[in-house]
Amino acid sequence: MYDIIGDIHGHAAHLEALLDQLGYRRDGAGYAHDDRQAVFVGDFIDRGPAIRQALAIVRAMVDSGAALATMGNHEFNALAYHTPAPGRPGEFLRAHNDKNTHQHAATLKQIEGAERADMLAWFRTLPLWLDLGGVRVVHACWDPAGIETLDAGLGRHGGVSDGFMAEATCQGTDLFNAVEHVLKGPEAPLPAGMTYDDKDGHARRRSRVRWFLDPVGLTFGQYALPALELVDDQPAGMVSAVELYPASAPPVFFGHYWMTGDPKLMSPNAACVDYSVAKGGPLCAYRWQGETELRNDRFVTVSIAKE
């Protein structure tokens, strides 16, 4: 059985408290459980005060077999930020502009030199999704077409190599679009002239959407993730480029979306475990017991006043 754990973002004390609450015991640098396995949905770095410690716990658990882990968009972005752009001396696959550097600043400050190189090398070993038979785990969106494209790209480039990263960060390629969906979530344009401010105060003209729900009968605002009241008078039928996750498919777990409030299911077979620990929310897990229809009482959270 699996305990699926949400975005950590360098909050090691929250992670330790959550693992304690879930019944894991200290095992060297990590934790272990007698009959359960943790599964991390990615986004281990950036924002938080204890990135080194959080990574040490996750890596030790993965190395010992006590946990599995997928890559988050922050790990992908870190690889792009530190990978030189071919044919463009002095430039990198992810631009070193103010916005990108600010997002990555906590990691840049806390992890340097050989330790940073080791961290990045480990990121390259992380799977971009996990299909565990009765349950699926991905950072942002289970997109079958995108996963097929990523699988082909990984095979073509020999894994998450510099060549893979170069193609995956080249806007307009199929591999770029697959990463955008699987690690960052599908988006739809807002009606003309409309914008909203995201969690970091940036104006956005596109909204992430609820790819696990049928948009028929919903407004655009209800189909947006998070919900957007400013477009509650627009039909969600205008969204056409998102493949619906079938109700008959295995349960799927993901992070990424900065949810707030008490954890609850997104649909009977879809659950988000990111409840904004990096913005003062709890660290969240779901204790999966093998059920095909998920239950709200399986969520477990921990909150710490200050880390």
TrEMBL record:
It comes from the Bacteria. Residues 4-130 form the Calcineurin-like phosphoesterase domain. GO terms for cellular component: cytoplasm. Keywords: Hydrolase. Pfam families: Metallophos (PF00149). Transmembrane segments: none annotated. GO terms for molecular function: bis(5'-nucleosyl)-tetraphosphatase (asymmetrical) activity; phosphatase activity. Its EC number is 3.6.1.17. PANTHER family: BIS(5'-NUCLEOSYL)-TETRAPHOSPHATASE PRPE [ASYMMETRICAL] (PTHR42850:SF7), METALLOPHOSPHOESTERASE (PTHR42850). This is Bis(5'-nucleosyl)-tetraphosphatase PrpE [asymmetrical]. The gene is prpE_2.
